[in-house]
Design goal:
The chain is 58% helix and 0% strand. The chain is mainly alpha-helical. α7 crosses α8.
């Protein structure tokens, strides 16, 4: 019988949080290769130590980024995020828009006007009219959810 692979709870937690370095083998910094405390898989720890090396030890940005298996743009982004938010700024965030950006108040006011004129309009028809008027393509379900949220707030 084959041996079962050992569970890696830290690796699983880092993956769930989006903080797992995709290429830990590219980290060549001696601390992360020799000391058990430093984990080349931990992206937050890598970013912090990379910033510390540049600020406290005078490493160049490109040298530090290379030693930690990251790119120069990721160094500059980490430095901006850390300066703005401190350590929480180095935590991973979801990508993409944070909120609805297509369903503006103007679009929703237009929808209200269209529905006032004809209450029997389908969502698909409204989506087509929004695209014709505003040049914004929506999924019908997005419009349905937005209208449901507004109805719920109105109650």
């Amino acid at each position: 019988m084959g041996r079962r692979p050992r569970r890696d709870p830290k690796g699983e937690a880092l993956r769930r949080q989006g903080a797992l370095h995709p290429r830990p083998e590219t980290v060549v910094d001696e601390l992360f290769r020799e000391a058990e405390f430093f984990d080349p898989r931990d992206l937050v720890q890598l970013k912090y130590e990379m910033l510390r090396r540049v600020e406290a030890e005078g490493y160049s940005a490109s040298g530090a980024a290379r030693a930690f298996g990251l790119s120069r743009p990721s160094f500059y982004k980490a430095r901006r995020d850390f300066a703005r938010e401190g350590l929480p700024g180095l935590l991973p965030r979801k990508r993409g828009p944070r909120a609805g950006h297509k369903l503006t108040e103007a679009v929703l006011a237009f929808v209200d006007g269209e529905r006032d004129a004809d209450a029997a309009l389908s969502t698909a028809t409204l989506v087509d009219r929004i695209e014709a008027r505003f040049g914004v393509r929506l999924h019908p379900r997005s419009l349905e959810r937005a209208l449901a949220r507004r109805a719920k707030k109105a109650r």
